[in-house]
Please model this.
Amino acid sequence: MAAAAKVGSGTAPWTVSGLEAAVQAQHGAGSEEGGQADADSLAAVQKRFEKAVALPPPEFRSHASGMTLSPGAAAAAAACSGAACDLVRRFVLAAQEAAALSDTGGCAVQHCPDALGIGLRPLPYTAFAFGNCCEPFYNRGALEVVRQLVDGAGMRGLEWFTGSSTSWFLARLAHLTSVETAKGFADKARSVAQAQFEPAWLDSGWDLQLIPPQGPVTTFADTESGEVFEEYCALRFLPHGARFDIISVQGFARMACLARAVQLLAPQGGLLVLPQAQRPAYRGAAAIVPPHWLRLSDAHEMGETVVWMSMQK
Model:
């Protein structure tokens, strides 16, 4: 479905990176309409520059020294052959660009009106460190990589947990499946989505599933229990052979959900995202995800987001 059917008329609600703005300025020159695009793009570059001179210390934001690719990622991308390798090469290039943009304040940040935001980002959870209340709660550099790779061209996504990521994904994917345990959170995500997208698009492009836990949740250990959240992680409603191009594991029982995500992700060029990966409960992630998949870690003092890209052996 065309983007216009998803977001309606008007200007897209997200901004571009400084590099993209410069490219748009170059391609827009030579016409009255292009001249306005040139002015707008140069203004965007100037805005990024002004942000860069006021960047918080590196420990409170994404920065190049905190972004690391798995050893051999660049070589693996270069050695990959065939049309299916395009996303693999783009993953490496996006990671390299995001590292540079993070150090200059150039990562794209979506405009977020209060009425469309979900959740809170108290200081020092700034937009330099994480996605804002209209974006996934990923480290900013990792979010920039995901943003560059999620282009909506028939892509299907899955997210465990609804929130600020939901409408962000809906605007960029051909179809999104969201899994939630709490009716209040599901209702909030639905109301914000209904304020931005046409009903027909939501009916066909979004599957919101409410799956409560199978037992009481009174401790942190309960929140990470694969038994308490067995149905939540299993996703038995999915048709046989279902595959997704991007999966975000940001809810409960993340290790159990991560194992299920590995089964459901497209075998080549799929994106798997684990926010708050620095938590001790998630140290087992490396043993769950195939070791030959490409891996990007974006870490700073406030947390870590890991993004994997699937690769066939």
